[in-house]
Amino acid sequence: MKRMIIATKNKGKVAEFQQLLTKKGIEVLSLLDYNDIPDVEETGTTFAENAILKATTIANMLHETVIADDSGLIVDALDGEPGVYSARYAGEGKNDQANIEKVLVKLQGVPFEQRTARFHCTLAIAKPNGDVTTVDGVCEGYITEKTIGENGFGYDPIFFVPEKQRTMAQLTKEEKNEISHRAKALQHLLHIWDKLFEKGNES
Questions:
Q1: Which positions are annotated as binding substrate (predicted)?
Q2: Which residues are catalytic?
Q3: Which of 24, 94, 115, 200 is 20 to 30 A removed from 73 (C-alpha atoms)?
């Protein structure tokens, strides 16, 4: 496999995939490279359902192997919200700052030790022949009381990573790619990569 299409138009996600997959000698394309691919409506109720839906839909359109991810923030004190609705938690506009503010408002008065949360990522790899494989990755942490840091995207500025003693938005790209939910899911994918794409089984 010399080329892989990532079913996203999120530049931040594309950059993370590129940094991790180019090490494998893989050219990474995304939906930003295709002008006529419509957004796939995420109608699933789980990360896996949405990832599979996106991957299979785009694989059928392009007749190529496609990776799609569905990921989000799970906050225990909010009964798992925002979950699969992370990107549009504050509305359909997918506004990162509005999403962050909604989480912080809902957590007002909750002590730090009860602000446990995790980023979850499910990757679905769909082949044109209909085969689909999923892998997962999780990063545990806490929600801060205010935004800290300028890097990353999404909820990174309010997600404190205990092992780094910093928020995700304070980490360099290299540091984030050591511990992020997407990086862990990709590492799981790379472990089974050769089996998935062994010679003669790449269709």
A1: 8-13, 71, 153-156, 176, 181-182
A2: 70
A3: 24
- Per-residue confidence at 1, pLDDT binned at 50, 70, 90? low
> Is 194 one of the annotated binding-site residues?
no
Q: Give the strand pairing for 3-6 and 27-30.
A: parallel
- Residue 4, pLDDT score: 87
149 is in an annotated binding site: no
Lowest mean pLDDT among 32-46, 62-76, 151-165: 32-46
155 annotated to a ligand binding site = yes
Give the torsion sign (CA, 55, 16, 43, 83). positive
Structure tokens at 96: 């990162």
Given a cut of 70, is residue 122 above it in pLDDT? yes
